[in-house]
Amino acid sequence: MTIRVDDDRPPAGVTRREFMVGAAGLTFGVLLPGCARVATMDSPSAALATTAGNAPAFSPWVSIATDGTIFIQSPAVEMGQGSLTALPVILAEELDADWSKVRIVPAPPDDKLYGNPGFGGVMYTAGSNAVRSYFQPLRIFGAQVRRVLLDNAARRWGVPVGELTTEASVVVHAKSGRRLSYGEIAAFAEIPAKAPEIKPEELKKPSEFRLIGQDVMRVDLPGKVNGTARYSIDVQVPGMLYGAILRSPVEDSAPAQIDDAAARAIPGVQRIVRLPFGVGVIAETPWAAFAAKDAVKVTWDRRAPGWGFDSDQAIARYAAAARNLETAGKPWDKVGDAAGAMEKAATVMEAEYRCDYAYHAQMEPLNSLAAVSPAGDSCEIWVGSQSQTMAVTAVAKALGVATDKVRLHDTLLGGGFGRRGHRDEEFVVDSVLLSKEVRRPVKLMWTREDDVKNGRFRPMSAHFLRAGLDASGRIVAWQHRVACDWVTPYMDPVRYKGILRENDVIAIAGSEIRTYDIPNRLAEQLGQDTGIRTSPLRGIGFVANKFATEAFLDEIAQRRGVDPVELRLELLKNTPRAQAIVRAAVEMSDYRRPRPGRSLGFAFVDYSNTMVAGVAEVSVDRQSGAIRLHNFWCAIDPGIAVQPDNVIAQTESSIVYGVGLALTERISLKDGIVQQSNFYDYVVPRMRDVPEMHVKLIQTPNPPTGVGQMATPLIAPAVASAVHGATRARLRHTPFIPERVRAALSA
Amino acid sequence: MAVDFRVNGRPVSVDVPNGTRLLWVLRERLQLTGTKYGCGVAQCGACMVHVDGQPTFSCQAPIEMVRGRSVTTIEGLSPDSRHPLQRAWLAERVPQCGYCQSGQIMNAAALLARNPRPTRAEIIEHMSVNICRCGTYQRIVRAIERAVKEG
Ligand code: FES
Ligand code: FES
Q1: How many angstroms does the Cα of residue B37 sit away from the middle of ligand 1?
Q2: pTM of the full predicted structure?
Q3: CATH class of A16-225
Q4: Which end of chain B is less packed: N or C, by CB atoms within 10 Å?
């Protein structure tokens, strides 16, 4: 979910200076002696101070208590990716904090203070972008706080500040042997009106890091092995009722007729509510709410555009649109003169690829708990959303109140993968609408079936690619036409119209191939108006678009009679960093060694400056068409790794996610209605389906880039290449379900 | 009619309609929310508990099934979170979002109770009942092997 593919553009929306001034406005607070809240605060080794009443009542970035405890706010929500911990590590590094004294506090919604510079300054955890965007501002801020502590110690001792150094949470004057702990300084410190200026060259060198690169324990982990970790679905408040909603199967459709007689007869049902997009049920127990929802019978109006949509038929239309060169698409990656160079090329190759809709399947079905006040003029919500800002704003809008009337209690997220970060936050609003009806707290839960049927999907896409080769076989022209449903205008119209300048980044990202040395190229989007609900899904456009580009390169290599790896190395000749990652993957997989009965395939991806390369080892059962993935080797260069083991964990995770998208996961629609409903027909990888994964992290002294989804796009093209090696068959349509493999084998 | 049973060693009595699933009783009546709802149809294992030591999908078990029996949830696996599997889970840094992990640990505990030295193939076979959408599978295998070794 990257929003900036070109890294040289300044962070959109918020300039660095504004960000620093915003942060410097409250900079850090010093908790003075007698602050009872801190004295009684007891946050065990977990080092996670929750917002549930025991966190300090203020919200600056850093607070240092006189006992030495350092509270650091973390603006990132935690959905398994680790940035709740990683961001405070960055700040603590430059502050030179003793990590054992750090308590992490989830930051409250406050865009001015905590907004993500990578997302125009809203609080939004997505796009593998938290560490990447906050890295430099948090380092500078940590260094500023440290400088204030040094200045205070220098004043107290009457020595030049240049004679002072720090160790973990201690200021040291080596000459006199004097020492003051940060807590001791906090007891007398004065905070300057203006934050001290820190130049980038005053920051630590990577060789001086004590925390970055050390894999501190993620603060959320201890609670995740004993059942105490709290997700929104676990929250209970006094007087709470349970809600369920039968939503229209097609977006923008409304109930025409409702028959709720059977639902009303279920004991414990309190209220049945007509909503613009469905029917809500409020009951005393979850089982009554679910049963009543199942018992409601609705006929829907047929006004929504999505009715009648059939994905099997539509994909042929998408393919025709992609092939129809008469119609220009919306350009995304445009360099040189692709059309002109194509005409002059000695050979033109063409290929088509397709990808089905895919569903997030985050493990915790969507849910939210809302408590609207009796007067209906304020609201508390308990929810795990990828954007604190969007959640609060959507709720305020639904109630017609100011955002400061909405109090958010954020919780851990049982997976996000892009599903919990839509601008409308529809599942949160669901809970608010029901609570508003009864003016009591309502925990609204979607069943897994609701979560699938009301899913918002990675778009379906058809890709038509053309490559012009000169007489020597060099690729001189490249065209990639992507026909797919629109995504960004649907999932976040504000960002689409605003900082994205009407680029459908979520769908088209990854069609750029800027790292490859191809002088003339054009990637363009042919957006399809379908009325189907779409979403950023882990890997966003990269998964489909890199499948198409990498699989096509595999075909070009074959045509030219060169090894696919050699072709990549040739194309990457201007990017040594990328070449290094290709070579690492080749070496770790022992790529040149033949494996009887098995075959290897290769893919490379530059994902917003994180370089990844992968090798898949597969065998194919020609009878059944089943593909077995035995091993996957992946080399990743994300620049500096703040939490190296977590980078590896995220890479394993994104490989597994890619395996599902490549082999089994598929949503289909008939008459606009999702055909799948649960894990028996939406098939995600299980332990027995995943390959042995070998991940090599190669750190380079580049600013940290994303790690949360970078390997996902590697799997489909690497597997397709390996299957071609084993069978000579070309797989052109993800997922590679057995019937498609059999069809390719007999083609 | 009230159903009496034991949860994590403690006697409890609940009055809910017959057929109510153990999962929702544990979570919403007994406040044992470590046991999770993932699918409701015996497909994901997020709801896994032990009933008289047997791994059981609590989303399937009707409440009357546990009458007079003994249920163990993740909260009762160990008094201090120091069950060998829990320690191994942290040592291998298994959890990501964490939502599936109670079920994973309970199913792994049931495996080790029955088969203290499982082979890798046995682990994979047994644990393929549980879905982890964050894809922590490789670390789960490592953690189980570590727990076997370190006990
Ligand atoms: S919730 Fe019981 S198996 Fe999924
Ligand atoms: S850790 Fe997220 S589903 Fe397993």
Answers
A1: 6
A2: 0.93
A3: alpha beta
A4: N
Q: Which numbered atom of ligand 2 lies nearest the CA of B134?
A: 2
Residues of B in contact with A80 (CB under 8 A): 95-98, 134
Token pair 């040289």 is found at: A8
Q: Round to whole Å and give the CA distance between A542 and A514.
A: 13
What number is the ipTM of this complex? Answer: 0.98
Q: CA–CA separation, A96 vs A146, rounded Å?
A: 7
CATH code of the domain occupying A311-358+457-746? 3.30.365.10
Q: Which ligand places an atom closest to the C-alpha of B36?
A: 1
Q: Does the beta-carbon distance from B134 to A228 stay under 8 Å? A: no
Residue A744 phi/psi, 5-degree rounding, is -65, -35
Question: What span, in angstroms and rounded, lies between the C-alpha atoms of B61 and A548?
Answer: 46
Q: Which residue of A has its CA nearest to B97?
A: A80
Check the CA dihedral A335-A340-A343-A345 and report its sign: negative
Q: Is B135 in contact with A653 (Cβ distance < 8 A)? A: yes
Domain boundaries, chain A: 16-225, 232-304+366-445, 311-358+457-746
pLDDT at A30: 39
Ligand 2 contact, B101 CB (< 6 A): yes
C-beta of B66 in contact with ligand 1 (< 6 A): no
Q: What is the per-residue pLDDT for A28?
A: 52
Q: Find the ligand nearest to A360 CA.
A: 2
Structure tokens at B129: 């009942």
| Strand-strand pairing, B10-15 and A297-300 | unpaired
Low-confidence ranges of chain A (pLDDT < 50): 1-27, 29-59
**CATH of the domain spanning A232-304+366-445:** 3.30.365.10
Q: Is A227 on the interface with B (CB under 8 A)?
A: yes
What pLDDT is stored for residue A2 in this prediction? 21
| CB of A80 closer than 6 angstroms to any ligand 2 atom | yes
Q: Which two tokens stand for residue B57?
A: 């999908």
A385 contacts in B (CB within 8 Å)? none
Residue of A nearest to B93 (CA): A221
The residues, any chain, with a CB within 8 Å of residue A209's CB and separated by 6 or more, are: A93
Chain A contact probe: residue of B63, B133, B141 with most A CBs at under 10 A: B133
The reply to whether A16-225 and A311-358+457-746 are identical in fold is: yes
Contact predicate A257/A208, CB 8 Å: no
Q: Does the CB of A652 have a partner CB in chain B at under 8 Å?
A: yes
Cβ–Cβ < 8 Å for A172, A146? no
Name all domains of chain B by residue range, CATH numbers in brackets.
2-76 (3.10.20.30), 84-150 (1.10.150.120)
For A506-575, the DSSP string reads HHHTT---TTS--SEEEEEEEEE-----B---TTHHHHHHHHHHHHHHHHHHHHHT--HHHHHHHHTTT-
